[in-house]
Write a structure and sequence with these properties.
The protein contains seven helices and four strands, in the order E-E-E-E-H-H-H-H-H-H-H. The chain is of the alpha+beta class and 165 residues long.
Length: 165
């Protein structure tokens, strides 16, 4: 459906949809001040599920420079391919729900640890969990890794390491 813009003498702008089969009037009453509003010359706009989705995707994903060079996403396959090239991952409703639940659990754990052992211990626990998530180590592997690093950094261990020639 074509979208037509109208402007009154007060400067109010309004847009109205008209069927392709009917001709848009050259003048309407402004919905704000009820004065005559005249149809404006503008680039045609198509409104519909496909067009508005593509416009939103082009606006959200492409820079002004890319749009000026004529780069345009023309369909769902283009959008998905471009998102993949950017490393964008669309979160499903189920993934979002799981993430919210995980964050809720982490906040509860933080509050419990903070109340039981203090804020420093709670922050250390959160940092340990973040490292495990990022590294893919389970709690046993991370504990071994952490203990080995702490052991190596002790002064008596460092003193026992021979100096290179």
């Amino acid at each position: 459906m074509p979208l037509y813009g109208f402007k009154c003498k007060q400067g109010h702008v309004s847009e109205d949809l008209y069927s392709i089969r009917e001709e848009a009037p050259k003048q309407i009453l402004c919905p704000r001040c009820h004065q005559p509003a005249f149809r404006q010359l503008s680039a045609p706009k198509a409104i519909g599920a496909t067009w508005s989705r593509l416009d939103q995707a082009n606006d959200a994903l492409l820079s002004d420079r890319m749009r000026k060079r004529g780069i345009e996403l023309k369909g769902q396959k283009d959008i998905e391919a471009y998102e993949r090239s950017l490393g964008v991952h669309r979160t499903t409703a189920e993934e979002a729900k799981l993430t919210r639940e995980k964050l809720k659990d982490e906040d509860a754990d933080f509050a419990h640890t903070s109340a039981s052992y203090g804020t420093d211990a709670a922050w250390q626990q959160r940092q340990d969990r973040d490292v495990m998530d990022a590294s893919g180590l389970n709690s046993f592997e991370y504990a071994n890794f952490k203990n080995a690093n702490e052991a190596v950094s002790r002064p008596e261990v460092l003193d026992a390491i021979p100096e290179p020639d």
